């Protein structure tokens, strides 16, 4: 199949190129934007069966302002002293100035003695905003509040910061936009530099950039079309992840093709015949590798957490488009350029006499027991660190520390319980539609106040009552201020467990109590995430093993290949725990990180295993004994795996420049994971295990037995010879 495809592409390059250009233009013009399906509200990613979502639905039906947002202006003295009466008067004037500015969507601004902290070091100004936090006009309103508020305290001993959910989202959006720009530039520069080092050719270095640019124009539109058709909403981190994935795997696939094409030219093939052969041989490897990634990504459809459910199909679409481009668009361009793709370097004309990979291959072939124990031992040692992982749901910790909302949260904690940033709201609803007894609800609120971990109750009105009643009196809401940060694991434990137990047990007769608010939502997100990890990982592993089994016609090889991939996942997680929780002294890793590692380390690690096992099988089919096959597989397949791993790890490492904690963790973790997969697992552990197992590795088939369909003896590599 790939030979026929290669023949058509190589001999009809302009048709292929024009087809890609027309497709890209049509999608860019007519398809929706990825931003149209992007969502930043974690609650929208949870099914309606979770308590926090039921509470949110109750709020929307019973309280008119449930769909509204707010901004919290935190005011304190620059010298850290208590606020004086004059300072409090200034804060009151500040609130009046914001109110009189008639900012669009701002419904009211309030402060006063009840907004002064018990130690008098902090006073809050609350601004109600009509609309949900993901509404662009709501974000604009927060920015205008900042613009109006700051000049109002010029010349005073006061300082202020605007914080809260909307302000955090605004700062988060700005941080991700900046990170996207930095990461994009760093990725392109890194890829060009590494490819110049490998090929010594500006044309070969720019080819992935041009190709990925075309795919990057097509993929977001296709993803948006599918998302709209299936009602999927994607997380805001998708755009950055998508960029890294396309540049990373795109460069990998193009490397495999160019390595192979260069080898065929060195062996004396005609420029077009050599390219057809390269597409035929590399096409199967790319298709198998892409299929493994796509199946791993699509396993996320089993997730109940919507951010993961949409992330899998979105990235799978991008991988399919990139793989198709690698076997059509890239060969079409190379067909027009011929050997000039390597200009001005002349190294493609001569075969390297020796390389470091030859020495590595010789060592692996001669000492497979030592190599297996050493490489496996390193991975096991790193994997032990994964037992210490703690999941972090703290959204404030994900922002750069110099953002205004982060500073505001720190200032707020100097005078109020940390939970004041985002109160946990307990809703009480009458089961029979009768009006609630205000005194009974007040008693219920006081019982909630006694739950360990609850720092206080936010007054519902000027008179200081604890519960706010709905207009028809059939529902009430009680705003609890937790002692810990609303996103901390301690707060999540409280809102998702003990507080719910007390609220359900102590609810007044004839009523139902539901715990809502951001902390309750993240408690449910944590439960959904834990469930997804337990379901997705085994299913994905089984599906990937099935692909390997079909490709290799073996049961044994897929089993130990998947064992090495799973070990690679845990060793990567362990190394990341040691770096960030150990050396970095962070309270935990982002809760999304294990799934991200699954996406890339497991899926792409399988890619490298496929490349190496394909080479091992081919060498065995050429009549080499298992140890010699391992030696030659590392010698000839190692350079392409090493180059691909280096580039992919480098592209992910560039995410550490973005200034966002989650991106830094992901960049480091995936870079380390790819490094382990390419340079430890695929280059040492898999070849040594295959050498030790010998013919048994291919049981019950005969994948290592030469057949009529085998390559000629001079066709030495499925992906190419050593880089020079």
UniProtKB/TrEMBL annotation:
- Primary subcellular site in the record, as a coarse category: membrane
In terms of Gene3D superfamilies, this protein maps to:
Multidrug efflux transporter AcrB transmembrane domain (1.20.1640.10)
Q: Return the similarity comment.
A: Belongs to the resistance-nodulation-cell division (RND) (TC 2.A.6) family. MmpL subfamily.
Q: SUPFAM superfamilies this protein is in?
A: Multidrug efflux transporter AcrB transmembrane domain
Q: Where in the cell is it found?
A: Cell membrane
| InterPro entries linked | MMPL_dom, Mycobact_MmpL, SSD
Membrane topology designation: Multi-pass membrane protein
User: Upper taxonomic classification of the species?
Assistant: Bacteria, Bacillati, Actinomycetota, Actinomycetes, Micromonosporales
Write down the PANTHER family for this protein, in alphabetical order.
Answer: MEMBRANE PROTEIN MJ1562-RELATED, MEMBRANE PROTEIN YDGH-RELATED
Keywords assigned by UniProt, alphabetized: Cell membrane, Membrane, Transmembrane, Transmembrane helix
**Superkingdom of the organism of origin:** Bacteria
> By what name is this protein known?
MMPL family transporter
Q: Which Pfam families does the entry link to?
A: MMPL (PF03176)
Start and end residues of each SSD domain: 205-336
PROSITE patterns attached to this UniProt entry: SSD
TM segments?
Answer: 12-31, 178-199, 206-227, 239-261, 282-308, 314-337, 368-389, 535-552, 559-583, 589-611, 641-662, 668-693
């Amino acid at each position: 199949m790939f030979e026929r495809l290669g023949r058509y592409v190589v001999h009809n390059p302009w048709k292929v190129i024009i087809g890609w250009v027309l497709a890209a233009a049509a999608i860019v013009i007519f398809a929706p934007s990825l931003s149209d399906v992007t969502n930043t509200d974690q609650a929208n990613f949870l099914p309606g069966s979770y308590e926090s979502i039921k509470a949110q639905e109750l709020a929307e039906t019973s309280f008119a302002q449930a769909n509204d947002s707010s901004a919290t202006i935190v005011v304190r003295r620059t010298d850290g002293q208590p606020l004086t009466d004059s300072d409090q008067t200034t804060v009151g004037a500040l609130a009046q100035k914001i109110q009189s500015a008639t900012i669009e969507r701002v419904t009211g601004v309030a402060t006063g003695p009840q907004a002064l902290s018990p130690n008098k070091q902090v006073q809050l100004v609350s601004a109600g905003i009509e609309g949900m936090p993901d509404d662009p006009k709501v974000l604009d309103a927060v920015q205008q509040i900042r613009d109006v508020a700051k000049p109002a305290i010029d010349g005073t001993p006061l300082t202020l910061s605007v914080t809260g959910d909307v302000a955090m989202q605004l700062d988060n959006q700005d941080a991700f936009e900046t990170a996207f720009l930095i990461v994009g530039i760093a990725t392109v520069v890194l890829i060009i530099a590494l490819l110049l080092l490998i090929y010594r050719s500006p044309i070969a270095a720019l080819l992935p950039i041009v190709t990925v640019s075309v795919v990057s124009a097509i993929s977001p539109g296709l993803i948006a079309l599918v998302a709209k058709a299936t009602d999927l909403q994607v997380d805001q981190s998708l755009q950055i992840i998508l960029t890294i994935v396309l540049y990373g795997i795109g460069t990998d696939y193009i490397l495999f093709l160019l390595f192979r094409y260069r080898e065929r030219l060195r062996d004396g093939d005609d420029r077009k015949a050599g390219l057809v052969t390269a597409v035929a041989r590399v096409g199967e490897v790319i298709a198998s590798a892409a299929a493994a990634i796509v199946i791993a990504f699509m396993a996320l459809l089993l997730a109940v957490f919507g951010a993961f459910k949409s992330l899998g199909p979105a990235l799978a679409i991008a991988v399919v488009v990139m793989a198709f481009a690698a076997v059509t668009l890239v060969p079409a361009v190379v067909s027009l350029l011929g050997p000039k793709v390597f200009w001005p370097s002349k190294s493609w004309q001569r075969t390297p006499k020796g390389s470091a990979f030859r020495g590595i291959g010789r060592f692996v072939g001669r000492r497979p027991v030592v190599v297996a124990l050493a490489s496996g031992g390193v991975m096991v040692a790193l994997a032990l660190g994964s037992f210490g992982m703690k999941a972090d749901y703290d959204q404030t910790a994900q922002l750069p520390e110099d953002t205004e909302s982060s500073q505001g949260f720190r200032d707020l904690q100097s005078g109020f319980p940390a939970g004041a940033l985002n109160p946990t709201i307990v809703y009480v609803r009458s089961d029979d539609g009768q009006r609630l007894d205000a005194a009974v609800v007040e008693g219920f609120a006081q019982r909630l106040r006694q739950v360990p971990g609850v720092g206080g109750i936010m007054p519902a009105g000027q008179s200081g009552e604890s519960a706010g009643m709905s207009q028809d009196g059939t529902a009430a809401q009680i705003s609890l201020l937790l002692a810990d940060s609303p996103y901390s694991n301690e707060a999540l434990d409280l809102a998702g467990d003990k507080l719910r137990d007390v609220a359900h047990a102590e609810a007044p007769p004839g009523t139902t109590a539901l715990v809502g608010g951001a902390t309750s939502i993240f408690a449910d997100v944590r439960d959904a995430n834990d469930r997804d990890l337990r379901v997705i990982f085994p299913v994905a592993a089984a599906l990937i093993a099935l692909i390997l089994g079909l490709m290799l016609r073996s049961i044994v090889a897929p089993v130990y290949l998947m064992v090495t991939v799973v070990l690679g996942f845990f060793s990567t997680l362990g190394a990341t725990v040691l770096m960030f929780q150990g050396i970095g002294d962070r309270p935990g890793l982002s809760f999304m990180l294990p799934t991200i590692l699954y996406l890339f380390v497991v899926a792409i690690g399988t890619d490298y295993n496929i490349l190496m096992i394909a080479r091992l099988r081919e060498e065995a089919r050429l009549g080499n004994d298992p140890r010699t096959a391992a030696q030659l597989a590392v010698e000839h397949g190692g350079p392409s795996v090493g180059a691909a791993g280096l580039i992919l790890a480098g592209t992910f490492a560039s995410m550490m420049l973005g200034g966002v904690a989650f991106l830094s963790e992901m960049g480091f973790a995936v870079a380390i994971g790819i490094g382990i997969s390419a340079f430890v697992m695929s280059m040492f552990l898999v070849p040594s295990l295959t050498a030790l197992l010998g013919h048994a590795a291919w049981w019950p088939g005969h994948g290592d037995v030469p057949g009529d369909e085998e390559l000629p003896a001079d066709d030495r590599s499925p992906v190419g010879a050593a880089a020079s």
